[in-house]
């Protein structure tokens, strides 16, 4: 008899469903906390209070950037860590340990809202329309944090506790470096498996590498009436990005694709996400900074990508007719993240798939993600099998972000079922 055979899924679903109102209220409260980069404290204070109310051992700790810099998974941060803490809640069984340990990880930070006037309602004022709960961060990924909290609460309401350590992590800075999750690893938190309820509506079995870099350009300023005699820094930055896009096209060609991404329409994406430059409408711009995001396949080291990018930039600069009048430099800040492939036949994955089938009554889908997540730290540096499995959401990083409340509750039921199966349970 498997561990899953001993779990009463109907009882778990009933216990989870009874928490629907509480879950929706908690998600709304979290969305009201505008946990943008560097502003995560209010949301983390709320999470800490929830963990304390669950009688978990709570560890709130600052990120030691000096210590992280020595780790191969480190990415250069773009803001200070002062006042920005991770919150970890630790469940230790009171009635005997006999199962396998588990980490639930989620990030509390959210991306900027963009042009707020395009939102139907203010982005940090949650609102519902049927099954959808709207607001920045609702899907990515505060609903995932709520789902694992509800999973643990549902088991407790059933008179059960996981019979192994369960570590609940709410981390900062997933959206630009992942150093929050890395800090948990460096802090010493380990388990036999990790699940991140990112809003992918699948089990993620692979993810891309991602790199951020900035291209800074200094040009030759002249009056706009003789613009043809100068070198516009903005134009040159766009020219350099255009040359780099040829590499994106090459990596997307069928003969250069990674096996796990053969079926994707366009797996490798280079994005010019931000550009700043110029001083005056009637002056050829002196300076420009372009912030870029590059995707690359699992198995490719960030150092290899950096070398390739710098060779392309050097050649583009060399062949430019006005190269003598323009300078540039490349700065690496933010993601320097490797990709990975997860064994879908590992016990963690097969157990999670079984739990999904048992709760949802259908087979789970598997997906190779074209972005990055904090799962890389567990798989690459912690020897901990980790995947993303979370609710259905849409417009993440876009306008009118929303998450399906039904799917959040279903994920909570799956996570509770997985916890009971993976960790075992004790009566309390």
TrEMBL record:
Q: Which family does it belong to?
A: Belongs to the peptidase M20A family.
Which co-factors does it depend on?
Zn(2+); Co(2+)
Keyword Zinc among UniProt keywords = yes
What is the name attached to this protein's record? ArgE/DapE family deacylase
Please give the InterPro entries that the UniProt record associates with this protein.
Answer: ArgE/DapE, Bact_exopeptidase_dim_dom, Peptidase_M20, Peptidase_M20_dimer, Peptidase_M20A, YodQ-like
Keyword Zinc tagged: yes
A molecular function annotated in GO for this UniProt entry is: hydrolase activity
Q: Name one Pfam family in it.
A: Peptidase_M20
Q: Which UniProt keywords apply?
A: Cobalt, Hydrolase, Metal-binding, Zinc
- Provide the Peptidase M20 dimerisation domain boundaries: 206-319
């Amino acid at each position: 008899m498997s561990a899953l055979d001993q779990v009463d899924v109907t009882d778990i679903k009933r216990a989870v469903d009874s928490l629907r109102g509480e879950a929706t209220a908690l998600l709304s409260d979290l969305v009201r906390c505008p946990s943008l980069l560097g502003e995560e404290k209010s949301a983390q204070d709320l999470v800490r209070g929830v963990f304390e109310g669950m009688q978990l051992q709570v560890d709130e700790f600052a990120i030691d950037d000096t210590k992280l810099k020595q780790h191969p998974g480190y990415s250069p941060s773009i803001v200070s860590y002062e006042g920005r803490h991770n919150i970890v809640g630790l469940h230790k069984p009171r009635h005997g340990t006999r199962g396998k340990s588990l980490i639930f990880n989620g990030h509390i930070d959210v991306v900027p809202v963009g042009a707020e006037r395009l939102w139907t309602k203010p982005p940090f004022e949650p609102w519902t329309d049927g099954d959808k709960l709207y607001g920045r961060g609702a899907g990515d990924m505060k609903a995932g944090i709520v789902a694992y909290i509800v999973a643990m609460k549902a088991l407790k309401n059933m008179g059960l506790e996981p019979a192994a350590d369960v570590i609940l992590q709410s981390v900062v800075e997933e959206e630009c470096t992942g150093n929050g999750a890395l800090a948990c690893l460096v802090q010493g938190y380990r388990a036999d498996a990790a699940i991140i309820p990112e809003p992918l509506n699948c089990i993620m079995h692979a993810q891309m590498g991602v790199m951020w870099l900035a291209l800074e350009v200094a040009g030759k300023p002249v009056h706009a009436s003789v613009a043809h005699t100068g070198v516009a820094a903005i134009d040159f930055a766009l020219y350099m990005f255009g040359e780099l896009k040829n590499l994106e096209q090459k990596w997307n060609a069928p003969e250069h694709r990674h096996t796990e991404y053969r079926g994707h329409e366009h797996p490798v994406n280079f994005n010019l996400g931000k550009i700043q430059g110029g001083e005056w409408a009637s002056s050829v711009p002196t300076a420009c900074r372009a912030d870029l995001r590059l995707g690359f396949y699992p198995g490719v080291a960030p150092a290899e990508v950096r070398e390739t990018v710098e060779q392309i930039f050097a050649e583009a600069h060399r062949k430019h007719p006005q190269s003598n009048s323009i300078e540039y430099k490349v700065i690496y800040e933010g993601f320097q993240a490797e990709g990975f492939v997860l064994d879908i036949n590992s016990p963690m994955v097969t157990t999670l798939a079984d739990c999904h089938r048992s709760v949802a009554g259908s087979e789970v889908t598997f997906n190779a993600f074209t972005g990055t997540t904090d799962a890389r730290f567990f798989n690459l540096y912690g020897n901990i099998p980790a995947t993303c499995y979370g609710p259905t959401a849409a417009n993440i990083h876009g306008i009118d972000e929303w998450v399906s409340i039904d799917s959040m509750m279903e994920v909570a039921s799956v996570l509770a079922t997985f916890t009971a199966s993976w960790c075992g349970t004790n009566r309390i």
